[in-house]
Amino acid sequence: MGELSLTHPPTETKKVAGGLLYLMVSAFLLGLKFWAYHLTGSEAVFSDAMESIVNVLAASLSLGMLFIASKPADSDHPYGHGKFEFFSAIFEGGLITFAAAMILVESVHALVEPTPIHHLDKGIYIIAFTGVANLFLGIYLLLLGKRGHSHGLTASGKHVISDFITTAAVVIGLVVVKYTNLPWLDPVIAMAVAIHLGYVGAKVAWESMGALVDREDKTLLTVLQKTFTDNWFAGIIRIHHTRIMRSGNYHHIDAHVVLPEFWDVKTAHAETNRFEHKVIDQYPHEGEIHFHMDPCRRAYCKVCDVENCPVRQEQFSGRKPHTFDELVSPTEPPEFA
Hints:
This protein is mainly α.
């Protein structure tokens, strides 16, 4: 059973810095949006400001979780602290959904009992500025999250991009209200914003919950399947029962590998370690691999390219590509069983 462990990269500091920037910018934009709401009295602007409250709360939690997640594994957390990122993303999704419900209630009330709107010009300029700022912030967080494989920052980036879309819709709506003089459009726009936010919040929470409980990620397993195939060599005959446990950017991989039955323990250990290093070097995340070693049987002869095999009973006919079903199956394929 080989094992390859890698330490956390220097990008952890950048992740925390990104979380701090998210908090500072969100707090600044929150102040601007409530200023715009104070000037206009617009329900659409209020809905945008409510989402910014969520941004500030989510950014505060995200910063704390990123700091904790950046800590290396210790005796209390032998698999590391990476899953704390998923907690912050789930909480952020819940806050977005809650804000959507609050906006929807307020919008219905405003539609029934409308209030006058003032100073639309100033409000539009202020809200438009906050939207552009959120666009750049969201793109930055997405890039940082993808480069550092941070689920928390990626979720925050998606949220901030959705905030930009919300703001753009609010600005367009306010321009329409200004030139049509139809004030009832204002709460209707706020309702549309609430529905959009509810969808985004539920999606963020659902995806993050899946990562937290290690729901099977077929895309990630397909990447690993290709990585195994690209790096196998004589003696690494077949692989099955592959599982991935995600702890932030650090992945713990378990799999069964079929090896020549005549290899001694020392050879089997050295060769699986060599294979692990090759796989981890190509795999897009940090991590470790634990292999359970299964001895081969005569049924594997036709797909085994080990030379001078003392137990071979059938000529090698060629490597057979792994299927996805074989990779994740807890048992060996029937043709080899």
